[in-house]
Amino acid sequence: LERQRGITIQTGITSFQWENTKVNIIDTPGHMDFLAEVYRSLSVLDGAILLISAKDGVQAQTRILFHALRKMGIPTIFFINKIDQNGIDLSTVYQDIKEKLSAEIVIKQKVELYPNMCV
Description:
- The protein is α+β, with helices and mostly antiparallel strands.
- It has a single domain, classed as P-loop containing nucleotide triphosphate hydrolases (Rossmann fold).
- The protein is built from four helices and six strands.
- The strands form three sheets. It has a two-stranded antiparallel ribbon. Strands 3-4 form a two-stranded parallel sheet.
- Helix 2 (35-42) runs parallel beside helix 3.
- The termini are far apart.
């Protein structure tokens, strides 16, 4: 069902060793219908990576989840995906994050999609 719908429905966990540290990655649903599944995972997080679609921008569930992460003091990194789709303006996406999430953004890495084109 997850592959058919193209979304995560149940929390998935994987782990790997990095130097002397065990890293656990917890993939939680992003769809509004499955927020209860996400909340069950928040208490075990040391940090979060919040995916934001460049195409869709900040959605209602993104706001709800980010405010929960902020309230719990969980450091959060925004990862913007789908930046390679036609018509994407990353400055608009950055502004959307700043306005809708009241978040300060520090761009850590720009990506070259095509020769001589960085976003």
